[in-house]
User: Fold this.
Amino acid sequence: MDAEQFRALGHSLVDQIASQLEAVPRGPVTRDESPSAVRSALDLNGGLPQEGTDAATLLTTTATRLFEHSLFNGHPRFFGYITSSPAPIGILGDLLASAVNPNVGAWILSPAASEIEAQTIRWIAELVGYPTDCGGILVSGGNMANFVCFLAARAARAAWDIRREGLAGSHRQLVAYASAETHTWIQKATDLAGLGTASIRWIQTDDELRMDVSDLERRIASDVAEGHVPFVVIGTAGSVSTGAVDRLPEIARVCRDRGIWFHVDGAYGGVAAAAPGVPDDLRRLSIADSVAVDPHKWLYAPIEAGCALVRDSAALRGAFSYHPAYYHFDDHGTNFVDYGPQNTRGFRALKVWLALKQVGAEGYRRMIAEDMALSRAMAEAVTRNPDLELQTQALSIATFRFVPADLRSSVGDKDVEAYLNRLNEALLDAIQRGGEAFVSNAVVAGRYVLRACIVNFHTTQDDVEAIPEIVARLGRELDARMRPTLSV
Assistant:
């Protein structure tokens, strides 16, 4: 493909994408299609082609089919999980990054990209109130950002050279502490790090689903008495289920007194520290030894983009750096191969850097605050609907469930609660398949609830106020079919 053909195809594809993105709000969030139907529509059942295909036809057809058979997290009524609408400048940034195609593992292989990533990390740290001289690295997402910090904690707080000797270097068990609301990345991390999930101490939560610091202190004291090595406590800055924020200063005090690494999972809520109206605890990220944040969540970067921040950059290098003879990398620039598990690394920073340049800190504060205000508006709309029951609202997450009006007086009854759980689980499936909107679920105090998270700059007041009626209408239809299974 020569430059002229690339130019023509690129212009045509950008025009097509722009038109299709413009049409997304007028269509469904997703379509109720089976895997086999999607494979058939995209012609994915054949073997490897022996002959090539015209590039213009291939790009046009593929773009059309992708937009016809995908779920759109950029749709204004997508409220599922914590996946944001992609910033247009980030979409273009990915194109530009691919054109340069640097390996951002070593500075010599990626001078411009490495310096842009370094500045992006400093800017993210500044935005969330973390020391800007920290170490950091961009990774694929929240799981990996947390995992990088977890491994830094393991290397820094083990009482022996764990990188050389492994877990066999001591008979003492390393233990980690996390609340019951902590994301499942902690289970993956303990598993992949060789500690095993039994090394996790699950700490109780209070009525607001925040870590119970008194229980944390008791569990640490018990483990120390048994000869174990407490090495990391994970605080949550915006839980996945409800947006709860732990008492970070209190947890930090416990960690400081015990010499334990304090890590904060801020993959979702971390960047909200920049916005007005958030809990005071969320503004205290600077007291943590490490923090994970996700630019592809509330900074609206296209997937993938996570960020690990570690106060002591030497601790980050101490967890990952090796210098074999076949590396000839000078130290005059940052070699990100020393800061994380990857050697070959893509140019993730460009789309984040471009958006930070385009929007600025104040722009992000305003957009994040708007998302939180819309979530509160949704919660208010839920409370006005007689068939819905609000459970929680924090940051930009609202949870609620469908409760038929004639069952309100029986809420709390064992059989009624079991029925409501089944009903709302079926309701979630109906909403997701229907395409009018997309929400996810949570379990709060044993209740299966619907969960709407807003990290979407396309969402409007009209969109959030439409959700209660959609949910109630589908709920009434399901209840009419399912009620015969209830016996009270």
The mean pLDDT is 95. Residues 120 and 353 are 6 Å apart (CA to CA). The chain has three domains: 3-72, 102-346, 360-485.
